[in-house]
Amino acid sequence: MSDSRRSNLMLALPAAAAVLMMGVSCYYQGIWSERWGEFPELQIYADQLPEVPMDVGEWHAIDAGKSDERTRTISGAVGELNRVYTNPAGKEVRVMIMCARFRDVFYHTPDRCYPAAGFEMLSEPQHEVIVLSNGKDAEFFTTTFRKSEVTGTHEERGYWSWTADGTWKAPSQEKIEFAGTRALYKIYVFGNMPPGERREEHEYVKDFIAQFMPAVTTALRPGFEKAERARNGELVEASSQDAPAEGDAEPEAESSEITVEELDVEPATEEEAEPAA
After folding, report:
1. For the segment 82-123, what is each residue's pLDDT rounded down to a tens digit?
2. Alpha helices by DSSP H, 93-156
3. How many whole angstroms separate alpha carbon 34 and alpha carbon 56?
């Protein structure tokens, strides 16, 4: 090989290596950002939402309709549940559960959308762990929002969290905590706070969460299990060959009658068979 060709080759190798590295980087970045691929988990998660119970303990719900189209587009919601739960004391809690892709589900959060709707966020969201009625923990972000209107001041206490497998988390580094997760549920739980109400007087929201979250997780769990099978390619309908064809005779059941020969004993003689008088 001539010196000039060797020199050209030495110049080309770093460029080729750089192109290869860029290609590999783009490929994995595309996977990380979900730029391509199908996500059957999303529809599975959406189909499971109606299973969330309307009645939990002393709380009864009514449906509150759907979010507006703009909100659904921004949040990337594929499935959504909006309800208002009320207890006999007249306390109300608003619940929103939605499912979306990983890259969308963390963008539209109360600390962003409430200020955009004219609310003042009274403090930075705090991380709080709530002990549930089944003894398990659920993590939430929580803070209070205030809005001044002609009719007076309106305050709301909000809690929000995420899950991909039934364990509810509120991570500070969600891209690390949920790395590799393609679809998640997000839940908002909000309760009204009359102006001047002390913090301990709105503990009913936390009491509701403690009762509600185990019921939600139980209702959604079949979706988690089905989504896992979908990711593993196991959701395949049974082949018609596995079922007996129409008209095929059922196999005869083997007789359970045991013969004397099988017992390997001699039959009783006539004298032995007659009981003594």
Report:
1. 999 999 999 999 999 999 888 788 877 899 889 988 899 999
2. 102-105, 110-116
3. 36
What span, in angstroms and rounded, lies between the C-alpha atoms of 140 and 189?
A: 10
pTM here is: 0.70
Phi and psi of 193, rounded to 5°? -125, 110
Structure tokens at 36: 């391509």
Contact 123, 143 (CB under 8 A): yes
Pairing of strands 55-56, 126-131: unpaired
Q: How many residues appear in the chain?
A: 277
Q: H or E element: which one contains 271?
A: helix 270-273
What are the structure tokens assigned to 235, written together?
A: 């959701």
Q: Which residues pair with 62 in a beta bridge?
A: 84
Read off the tokens for 160.
Answer: 């929000």
Residue 120 is predicted with a pLDDT of: 93
126 exposed, middle or buried (CB, 10 Å; 0-12, 13-18, 19+)?
exposed
* Phi and psi angles of residue 11, each rounded to the nearest 5 degrees, phi first: -75, -35
- The letter for the amino acid at 264 is D
Strand 126-131 relative to strand 137-149: parallel, antiparallel, unpaired?
A: antiparallel
